[in-house]
Amino acid sequence: MSHSLSIPEQLLRRSIRVVRPRDLQESYANPSQEVQRLVSKGVLLNLAHGYYAVPPSEWIGDPAWVPEIEAVALGVAAADHQSGRVAIVGISAARVLGFLPRALAAAVVAVPVRRRYLATRVGQVHFWQREVEQLETQVWRSELGQGRVSTVEQALLDVADRPERAGVTIGTAQEALHNLALAANWDRALTLARSQEAAPSYRRVRWFADAIVPDAPFIKRPRHHITSRGLRPIEPTDRARFGIRDD
After folding, report:
1. Per residue in 95-133, pLDDT tens?
2. Which of 200, 204, 192 is nearest to 231 (CA)?
3. Whole-angstrom Cα distance, residue 103 to residue 95?
4. How far is residue 34's CA from residue 6's CA, in Å, rounded to a whole number?
5. What's the predicted TM-score (pTM) here?
């Protein structure tokens, strides 16, 4: 299929390949009509109301192609807020970084404003209002373009903060935390927790993973308790040491 005849050059050059009809206003007099034409020819994929994906070049025109939910979450967020202000975070970062092997039915993406979740053809996109420049992220190249994803240490703190965010089960969250904990630099995680005022998340995940991270930095016994948020330690651990109580 000839790309030049099917898709405007500006779409092929986009770093994030999710577009809205308004993004085509400079190319077409009736962007909505043109989008529907491109969808009917299989060169755009309708993700959700108002959002369309430009497939990778080798998949253009092939109806078998469907992107993963994490790529869709990043693409939708970047289309609305620019790629530098969004990032894949939490359980979705664990998935992208390879610490959760199973596909999920939802994805979490950090954006600068509060937004309601978006239902897409591949699952729900949950938006977490955060200032991405204050998070520790790294480059991620998805099938819908290049963006940002949390580092291992950032993902560790974020999953511990809200283990059930985006409808994730406690079991899935604990699996991700277990794998992240084994790979994390715990000195770095502690530094991040202090800079982001995320001490409760750090204490919670230290308590959870205490049995498998014996060389983690020492922390003083806290004065105030925090809830476990449903997590259970990998092996029985002294709650008082970390200031943990049941929800």
Report:
1. 999 999 999 999 999 999 999 999 999 999 999 999 999
2. 204
3. 8
4. 10
5. 0.93
